[in-house]
Amino acid sequence: MSTRLPTVEGSPEGPENDGPSTFEAPARTASPRLVATLALAGALAGLVLVAVHQWTQPRILEHQARVLQEAVTEVLGGPESTHTYFRVEGAWTARPPADADTASADRVYIGFDATGAPIGVALAAGEPGFQDIIRIIFGYDPGAGVVLGMKVLESRETPGLGDKIEKDSTFVAEFRGVTTPLIGVKAGRARGDDAEVHLITGATISSRAIIDIINHRLEARGEEVRALWRSGIAPPPTVPADPGGER
Amino acid sequence: MTERRDGPRAGREAAAVEGGRLALVASPHLKSPDSTPRIMWTVTITLLPLVAMSTWVFGVNALLVISAAVLGAVGAERLLGAGGAIRDGSAALTGLLLGLTLPASLPLWMAVLGGGVGIGFGKLLFGGLGQNIFNPALVGRAFLQAAFPTALTTWPDPGQGWGIWTGDLFALPFFSGRVDAVTGATPLGLMKFEEVSTPVRDLFVGTTAGSLGETSALLIVIGGIYLAYRNYLNWRIPVSILAVVAGLSSAIHAIDPARFPGAPFMLFSGGLMLGAVYMATDMVTSPVTNSGAWIYGAGIGALVVLIRFWGGLPEGVMYAILFMNAFVPFIDRATQPRVFGTRRGAPA
Amino acid sequence: MIGLLEEWLRGGFRHGIHPPDHKEATSAVPIRRMPFPSEIVLPMRQHAGAPARLIVQPGQRVERGDKVGEPQGHVSVPIHASASGRVAAVEWCPHPDGSQAEAVRIEVDPHSAQIPRPRLVPRWEDLDADQVRAAVKEAGVVGLGGAAFPTHVKLQPPEGERVETLIVNGAECEPWLTSDHRVMVEHPERVHFGIRIMMQCLGTSKAVIGVERNKPDAVARLRETLPADLDIEVIALRVKYPQGAEKMLIRAVTGEEVPSGKLPVHVGTVVQNVGSIAAIAEVFETGYPLIERIVTVSGPGVVRPSNLVVPVGTRLRDVLAFCGGCTPDAREVLAGGPMMGAPQADLDAPVLKGTSGIVVLTDAEAKPSRVYPCIGCGHCLDACPVFLNPSLLGKEAQAGRYAEMEAHHLMDCMVCGSCSYVCPSNIPLSQIFALAKGALRREAGRRRAAESAAADGGKAA
Amino acid sequence: MGELIWIFVSAMLVNNFTLVLFLGLCPFLGVSAKVGTAVRMGGANLFVLVITSLTASFLNAWVLPHAPYLRLISFIVVIASLVQIVEMAIRKLSPTLFRELGIFLPLITTNCAILGLAIFQTNRGYGALEGLSFALGAGAGLTLALILMASIRERVELSDVPAVARNMGLVLVLAGTLSLAFMGFAGLFTT
Amino acid sequence: MSPRVTTPSEDFLRGVWQENPVLVQLLGLCPALAVTNTVANSLAMGIATFFVLTGSSLLVSLLKSWIPREVRISAYILIIATFVTMADMILAAVVPEIHKALGAFIALIVVNCMILGRQEAFASKRPVGRALLDAVGTGAGFILALLMIGTVREVLGYGSFLGVPLFGETFEPWIIMILPPGGFFTLGLLLLAFAAWEERKVERVHPRHWPHGVTVTVETGGDAHG
Amino acid sequence: MLTPSTVLTSVAILGGVGATFGALIAAANLRFQVAEDPRLDELTDLLPGANCGACGYAGCRAFAEAALGGIVAPAGCTVISEAERDDVAALLGVDPGEADRRVARLLCAGGSDVAARKAEYVGIESCAAAVAVGGGGKACAWGCIGFADCAVSCDFDAIRMSENDLPIVDPALCTACNDCVEACPLDLFILLPLDAPLLVQCRNLFDGDAAEAVCSVACTACKRCVQDAAPGVIHMEKGLAVVDYARIELANPKAIERCPTGAIVWIEGQQFPSLNLPAEHEMMA
Ligand SMILES: Cc1cc2nc3c(=O)[nH]c(=O)nc-3n(C[C@H](O)[C@H](O)[C@H](O)COP(=O)(O)O)c2cc1C
Ligand SMILES: Cc1cc2nc3c(=O)[nH]c(=O)nc-3n(C[C@H](O)[C@H](O)[C@H](O)COP(=O)(O)O)c2cc1C
Ligand SMILES: Cc1cc2nc3c(=O)[nH]c(=O)nc-3n(C[C@H](O)[C@H](O)[C@H](O)COP(=O)(O)O)c2cc1C
Ligand SMILES: Cc1cc2nc3c(=O)[nH]c(=O)nc-3n(C[C@H](O)[C@H](O)[C@H](O)CO)c2cc1C
Ligand code: SF4
Ligand code: SF4
Ligand code: SF4
Ligand code: SF4
Ligand code: FES
């Protein structure tokens, strides 16, 4: 063996020389060892991860809850408290039965003022915009039938154009107090209707998408929410907004 | 016999068969009169009426924007290209075509940048004339549209008089100026976002908002016919584009006339005519085979209709051409001519 | 589909080009006989196939028509002295292809009457096909249309193939050249006689003479003199280059394409140039072997453009001198036409059996054009008569991709130059293809050699 | 149905994995020099994407509700192992197919497009059918991008590219321009 | 298995520069283009990747003799994925804003070709110290490359650096730089710039021409005739 | 916080996944294993990768296979450097073997300073192209055209064109790969052992004055070298002196002394030692 050969420390088989013409396939590892290795590695990884998870999870949840809470607060104009209502088997309830699948259930967040009177319902929704799906949350007053506010949760719209739907404060402000169903109008074509929202020049598609999202969401659930509202609701004993799997 | 004699690249000496040296040049010794510079300059000249027309419609800005684009293109060719490559006329033509696709109010520095990017990234990087994949003018325009979407979709109203100055034409490089142009919506924008149609007569004559070169379909068609007659463009390309656009849009228009405009509007609005006649036909970036030309043209036509009818943008000519440019090598590969004495399908 | 439509609209062979034909200079000039020069040189390599073998010694006396070279093998023909005189030397002479060739130099006897030894004129009626072929071979007849392919080989279709139609190539599509034209105008009966012999030998009942429409007088003369007992048709062809190329002519006449890599016999045809036909006729009229041919001397650099009967072996210098010499701005001398002819480095090179013309060009034509990159205009694809993609082949050559060129049918290119003619970027496409074909042939030869060496080695081991 | 089509078109053109979402770039640049290889790479990709989508749907439905934080690790381990097994099988059972497709499989396993598909599919809450449409769209988009790039590169090979652009610089600029061209599809079928 | 013996400093520097994973080997491109539209994102992604790379190299190199060849890929991936999941959860808990901006690309570190490549090519064959050095070098090279790309894109695309505006209000941002094409163009430009730099050093050898390729002196200059 | 049940779930899931796929891979391993010598790739990597075929195999990988099979010694690759050759030998555990050093020699000395021209070729700058167009214009139809096809074909940059347009082979760089021999359209290169010093640098078949008229260093076939050399070393063939390299050991420098034109030379090392390379090339040396 020449010293020029790579010396590979600790290599399992060790490159023992076997002449130019003889060649053996590298030895196979016994099957049980393969199983054991991967199983052990998996188990160890599971152990490590569960530890990290336990440490980080509360923080992540807390952050998510805070973000959602802020969004709800913003679109409802600062409620004193908010409560999550789930739609379980076609009925809305703040306290779903324990065996209900709340993770995938539709939900709304209802805000109450200091007196415990409901001030509005926050609904989240998403639809394709110009680039990809835009997700927003908006506040709705089922009594008056007006939108109270809108906030973009997630969008990949073009920076500088489409992202005006979240960054352009005049556009965002337009959603405070507009009558539903909303009507989008291009600049200079407004007729003074209460339902009008001015589309953003250069981002007509993105801004129209917001209007469509709100209108569609209300078309689907508006009636039920209004019924719920009319049925008279009061804040249940403290249940924080549940961020999990909101759609 | 040790005096130095000439090497293989010897220069010429006295002409005359007896005594002097004969020349050895490979056959054939006859040559058609067409040459690459002649093609390029001819196309450029046929575009000049269009430049004049756009100046008439949009004022001096038009001339300034076009000149800036030409300056950018020629400057880049000069700085980065092979020495003296400017004289073959292709860079000037690229700049001119780029200029014709821009709005009249564009800051001039952007037009210069577009020309530079078009030639630099769109052409010289590939080895210069003849080697590029994408239409350099459209690469420049696509770059500008993606970089400065607002400026590229701000269309001044036409017919504000000769010699008007609009927009932030003279903004400093890298900065925007004040926007004070009287802007209007283009016919395609009106159609897409307001479902308002513009009379075809206005489109044909060219007094609508839009880019500089969209002004007159008539001049473009005349130029195109002349060039096709001279065999400087492959007539199959514009014919297939326009036929597919007309056919598809008529069919879809019949289904929902309110939402989808019909063939005349589609043919004469936006950049379709300029694109079909002058940009899709760029020899370098279109298929070299005739059957490929049909496929390529049909593809552009279909994409224009797709983007205009269902896409997010009001106009899709530029993207359609760029996208089909990308397909050209594949189309060329797939449409090799059937060699004499072989059957089609035999390995080409 | 669309291709078929275009074809139907046009008829004839597809693609091709329309260069100016410049034939006016000599098309009406009658053939004249050129006086014998003081010496002639006869290279042994004048035809396709194996060169002839020298059979004379320096100092020996030869008469006009005597054999100076014997054929070596089947695809080979003898060489005959084209003038009486003394063998001055056996030496190297410049060959029109640019190389040096082994040749016989004969000092022409200025006092000789230049009458060939009397010989038996073969009675063609009595000969069978084999005897006709032998006589043709013995007379040294080769194709006069370009490739100088021994004619007796073409007269013998391979086993299992039958010739249905004899096609006579009177297209003469090369600009400036008019030698075939003059033969057809001045000796139509000789052409018909040659056809008669060929038809008999090939056992064919049908012959077609294809003539481009720019030679109406030739068409008329051939039609006037048609022998009543033979099925000969004279077709006026579209004027376009390369109408005279074998495969294009067959396509125009029969509508069939010779399959790639195959010979014309595959579609039941044999193509023979009118000059070659006339030469065969001459063999059976006079018994003379092929010792002289008709040469067009033309082009802007020639003082007196002419159609001449020139003894094979006459140096180009002497031919040009007889035509009044060259103009002062003459720059380039071509053996053959301007599209496919070979430029000459040395005017001491002789006229060969296959030299159909001498074209002298001036500075204006010999100026090399500035080359630009391929702009993908597709004009070359529309020009190539065998439907290649010269644009792609050119790029592949530039990148050294010979294998790919071969896969793209480079070997079907006949180097006609149509693509170079139309290319606006002045790319020397056909020259590139000639080179690439040469390189591929060398490569194949080497591979074969290596394989046979390996086979030998294997046997030895 | 309309939803499925939108998912397909969006994954193929509007949000093309390679040119818009930047997923699977390494093999995209590495294996796009020849059209033949590109086609086969595309095919192999499509295959693995489908496996991935099915795997992800399965894991999402059955295993991960118990421990969502193990999503990533179980996705990747399962996908990698499955692909390795398929590779071994193909290698043994059909050497031809292995030469055509198999050699790409390891390249694909460690490819962002695959895991990206699984993650996006989960994030967007796609079910099995939607996931399949997503995988097919993504695979078609990848294949399209690969073929376009490869045919362009074959042509560029024949041209006289300046020395500075002979490394991958030119290829990246090409990818950028392709990506520009794909911007024309933005907003397709959303209005 | 390269027979050439390398020194420790070579192991480190090679990854940073000569064999920079992004700029030279073109590995790990997805994150290098997808999340580099701002410097802050680039930095975060770089650091996360660095963490995963060093961690897993260390572990792989330690465990190499226990891992059977047949399952090594699965085992490596298991190790890498563990680190990535940790990074993912920690980033989400500690810097949620950046975690949101990086999106799925944190998870995609698992399949960053660069990382698995290092395990296969180096960590699984070398002693621990060397493997660590190599990982640190490669990881540093990755951060460096991401920062370069991120800087160009943020400065042109937003007119700012690390969020600080550089050119004032009226700067016209080049939005393309933030968009996908801008990512490709930026990396392309960097590669071109490096090539131009290298090019200065190399002298021209023979022009390649016939028989490897035909050179017809292509002149684009001079008088256009015709 | 670490409840036993979460820990258990997680360990069970990942452990289970690991075990399942460990088992599957093990099974696949048993069923589908394919044998291939892992050294083949390594060995191929060690080879120069020029794929020049000079070894007589179809590229480096084919050579590697042959070397693995013990059919050929590492030195069979003429291109490989000595260090690399030893690496290969070490990997295989065999003797590197010895190869006799051969170099390419040019059979023409007719540079543009001594050889006449009779016409001017204008066109593609390539010897093969020029030769096909009327012979290229050089008066000697056998002599070097000087467009450097050989230099371009050489993958090892062993050939430089000199000031007088002759290719000069650097024996240190030449690997005897045969590329130039194949590239030259006039067959002006032959591969000779480096220690074979006698060379007739001419292929012109003219005799006497005719030869000298086209090139002042042409072989005039005067036969003096035939007489001066040891018997049988040189003979005349068709107007040219030809060295019989089978008897080259008998040669001595006397053979070249009376050559009137200097067509026959005695070389040690580089051919044309006195020729200058043009300035641009010198920079590279
Ligand atoms: C690069 C680019 C990005 C774009 N991004 C968006 C976007 O995010 N949202 C949007 O609605 N339109 C976007 N557009 C679409 C155009 O701006 C489109 O013309 C506009 O929506 C039409 O609105 P207008 O009629 O008010 O000008 C984009 C266009 C380009 C070229
Ligand atoms: C190698 C070779 C073999 C040929 N064999 C035959 C043959 O067997 N029968 C025949 O009729 N012609 C044969 N030919 C003649 C060709 O068909 C053709 O007539 C000749 O090459 C001259 O054609 P050209 O002037 O177009 O180049 C052969 C030609 C070549 C080059
Ligand atoms: C491009 C091209 C053009 C040709 N033009 C003619 C022509 O005009 N007249 C002619 O007789 N032969 C022409 N030939 C040669 C013919 O193809 C063919 O070889 C010849 O007619 C066969 O007859 P031959 O053997 O009697 O020469 C041409 C060949 C080529 C490749
Ligand atoms: C040839 C040509 C192509 C064009 N392509 C596009 C395009 O793809 N997208 C676009 O927004 N504008 C394009 N324009 C500008 C276009 O005319 C403008 O957007 C329309 O006026 C909008 O209606 C193009 C203009 C020309 C002349
Ligand atoms: S030279 Fe060859 S490629 Fe060119 S037109 Fe003629 S046959 Fe076609
Ligand atoms: S004619 Fe010339 S420029 Fe046109 S495609 Fe052919 S090679 Fe290219
Ligand atoms: S090409 Fe010739 S000079 Fe170059 S290495 Fe090969 S044999 Fe030697
Ligand atoms: S030796 Fe041959 S290939 Fe080399 S320059 Fe001379 S002629 Fe050309
Ligand atoms: S990082 Fe390599 S494929 Fe995404």
What does this structure look like?
The complex is a heterohexamer of chains A (247), B (348), C (461), D (191), E (226) and F (285). In chain A, 33% of the residues lie in helices and 22% in strands. Chain A contains four helices and nine strands, in the order αββββββααβββα. Chain C is of the alpha/beta class. In chain C, the strands form four sheets. Chain C has a six-stranded mixed sheet. Chain C has a four-stranded antiparallel sheet with strand order 2-8-7-4, with no helix packed on it. A four-stranded parallel sheet of chain C has the order 11-10-9-12, with helices on both faces. Chain D contains nine helices and no strands. By secondary structure, chain D is mainly α. In chain D, helix 1 (2-14) runs parallel beside helix 8, helix 3 (35-63) packs across helix 4 (71-93) and helix 3 runs antiparallel to helix 8. Classes of the chains: A alpha+beta (247), B mainly alpha (348), C alpha/beta (461), D mainly alpha (191), E mainly alpha (226), F alpha+beta (285). Chains B and C meet through strand 1, helix 1 and helix 13 of B and strand 15, strand 16, strand 17, helix 10 and helix 11 of C. Strand 1 (22-25) of chain B pairs parallel with strand 2 of chain F, so a sheet runs across the interface. Bound molecules: flavin mononucleotide (3 copies), riboflavin, iron/sulfur cluster (4 copies) and FE2/S2 (inorganic) cluster (FES). FE2/S2 (inorganic) cluster sits between chains E (27-30, 112-113) and D (24-26, 111-112). One iron/sulfur cluster binds at residues 104, 153-154, 156, 158-159, 169, 174-180 of chain F.
Instruction: Tell me about the largest β-sheet of chain E.
Output: 2 strands, antiparallel
Tally of individual helices of chain C: 15
For the biggest β-sheet of chain C, the strand order reads: 1-14-13-17-15-16
- Across the major sheet of chain E, the strand order is 1-2
Largest interface: B-C, 50 and 78 residues
Helix content of chain C: 25-40%
What are the segments of chain E in which pLDDT stays under 50 over at least 5 consecutive residues? 203-226
Helical residue percent band of chain E: 55-70%
Q: For the CA atoms, what is the radius of gyration of chain E?
A: 22 Å
Bound molecules: flavin mononucleotide, riboflavin, iron/sulfur cluster, FE2/S2 (inorganic) cluster
Characterize the biggest β-sheet of chain C.
6 strands, mixed
> What is the first-to-last residue Cα distance of chain E?
61 Å
Binned strand content of chain C? 15-25%
Count of strand segments of chain E = 2
N-to-C span of chain C = 58 Å
**Helix-strand category of chain C:** alpha/beta
Shape of chain E: globular
Query: N-to-C SSE series of chain E?
Result: HHHHHHHEEH
Class inferred from helices and paired strands of chain E: mainly alpha
Question: Runs of chain C with pLDDT <50, length 5+?
Answer: 6-11
Give the tally of β-strands of chain C.
17
